[in-house]
Amino acid sequence: MHIHILIGSLFGPAIFGYRDTPHYAVIVWAILCSLYFLFKSRDVLAHSHETAYGEGATQTSGSLFSTFLIFVAISTVMTGVHYGVYFVAATFS
What we know:
80% helix
C-alpha cells in the first residue's frame, strides 16, 4: 500500500528528538502524516464504502464517522510510534 509514507514519516520525529524540539511537534507531525496517509488512501476508502453500502451509494454520516474513527486509530498509533522514535533519537543528542 503506502508503506513508504509510514516509514518516511519516522524521519521527522528522529530529527525532532535529535534537535530537542518540543514534544507538541511530534503530535502535530503525527496528525499531519495521518491526514496525508488518509488522503493518499482515499481510493481504498472509497472502495470500502462501495463494498459496505453498495455501488453508487452517496456519502453518509456513517461512512464519515467510520473514516473519522480510522483517522483516530491511525493518529494514535503514529503518535505512539513517533514518540518512541523521538525518545530514542533524543538519547543520542
